[in-house]
Specification:
Blueprint lengths: L8 H11 L3 H23 L13 E4 L20 E4 L4 H6 L4 E2 L7 H9 L4 E2 L8 H29 L1
Antiparallel strand pairs: 1-2, 3-4
Helix pairs in contact: 2-5
Length: 162
């Protein structure tokens, strides 16, 4: 019978660092490499408009290097080497779409909504969602995990040779 003990992330990293001191370096290099490759892939798959600004706005970086950048999620990462994909703020509108809404002054108020119902000028028709980031990440994630695990295994193998 196989027995397993569930440990937290900190305990696991502590044991890995005791076994292979350079495991975090190899993992950090693999993480940034994986995300840079994904950013390049997103440039090819991103929706294009009249300009190519959005398409060329994708960038991979360590989250610690961008403290002012808005985080997606409930909690900040405990991983000091966490990597993120950064893009122009319009990615949310493209990924999830928008509903029809008034662009007239005061259009978001109750009076503005009544005025917009009477006079349709100043109404934005909304935009259909163009999912491109999350579907591509879901497709790339298994390969990314393999690359990260290979980097960690390489660090462990090097430590075992010493």
């Amino acid at each position: 019978m196989i027995k397993a003990k569930v440990q937290g992330r900190e305990a696991l990293m502590k044991r890995l660092n005791a076994l292979a001191p350079n495991v975090e370096k190899y993992a950090a290099d693999a993480k940034i490499s994986i995300m840079e490759d994904f950013a390049a892939e997103m440039e090819q798959k991103a929706p294009t408009g009249a300009t190519l600004e959005y398409m060329h706005s994708f960038d991979a970086d360590f989250i610690r290097n961008r403290p002012a950048q808005e985080q997606v999620g409930i909690q900040a990462s405990k991983d000091k080497d966490a990597v993120g994909l950064f893009a122009s703020f319009i990615w949310r509108f493209l990924e999830f779409g928008t509903a029809p809404h008034s662009t007239a002054k005061g259009g978001g108020t109750v009076a503005g909504k009544k005025a917009a119902a009477d006079n349709p000028t100043g109404m934005h028709p909304g935009m259909v969602a163009q999912p491109h980031i999350f579907p591509n990440w879901r497709a790339a994630k298994p390969q990314a995990k393999k690359r990260l695990n290979a980097a960690i295994n390489k660090a462990v193998r090097e430590a075992m040779k010493k």
